[in-house]
Amino acid sequence: MMRNDAPFGFIRGDRGGQIMLLLLFVAAIAVPMLNTMTDPGSALHVPTYVVSLLGKYLTFALLALSVDLIWGYCGILSLGHGAFFALGGYAMGMHMMREIGDRGNYGNAELPDFMVFLNWKELPWYWYGFDSFAFAAIMAMVVPGLLALLFGWFAFRSRVTGVYLSIITQAMTYALLLAFFRNDMGFGGNNGLTDFKDVLGFDLQADSTRLGLFVLSAAAVAGSYLICRFIIYSRTGRVLVAIRDAESRVRFLGYRVEYYKLFVFTVSAMLAGVAGALYVPQVGIINPSEFAPANSIEIVIWVAVGGRGSLYGAVLGAILINYARTYFTGALPELWLFMLGGIFILTTLFLPKGLVGALPSFTLPGRAARDSGTEEKPA
Question: What is each CA distance from 100 to 105, 108, 138, 194, 282, in whole angstroms?
């Protein structure tokens, strides 16, 4: 239930969030213009490969946002969110594989190429419906959401918390990694799903499609930010922050803590699934490596570097760290993992509130700080 404030009062006073939304709006307009209306030799021209790269960064930003929602505001440290991201990606990948039809290497309109190669005789039942984009888009949210609901139901009702919860979330994503590696699972095994041609009839290699996916990714980040902010600003959000700070006290006050955790964990998983669904068309492949536990750990690093408990800090951290990875894996590939570890250690020691915590102008003043649970208490 929301407090009786003005419409969109949940972003009032949130200067960092407002700036982020403004930058997303500007980027969604400026990047397509600089790509299509400037000369390729101009310093202002944004090449199509950069557009795709920026779109990929935005999907990672959405993924980081989903983790910050549960970690920053409810104290749930998930080391398995890569699983929800990958499931959303597989849902969209299955649709695009069905869209290939008889244009595949084997010319089979009913079965994807990898199934023909493995001598599958008919399409598995769980592939039915994925010839529809709407169905695939819904499944990209529903499947991660159902997994989170089922997992959370047992974990939160059993009062599994802290490091134990983190470990079992990591075990969950590792189990899915092993399962999706199997050829008999019907998801392409080690190679995964790739060689996509188009989506909704638009050629994936066309510049216009790349621009459309970029704009859609920017809109998804902005929309998801507003959803997360809405949840946090609500009375449910205040209970979530209370659970983060003193779970036993909230339980003693009569709140069903497991239901609040289950709600926010499921919403977070669905957002991660949307991120995965937007990621796959822009990179052109989805395989079991996306389930790797190391990927989920890296998401936590993005959030910590940007600023846990600020939402827009998670977006900032995801974009900066992934830009650094793009640059340094090209310039110094053998040192990147050491650099990433060093960044995390330095952030933990010297910037416990992340980058946004080091910028006083981005702190939430007065009432907005109290609403989000980030207001510092006097010593």
Answer: 10, 9, 20, 10, 16
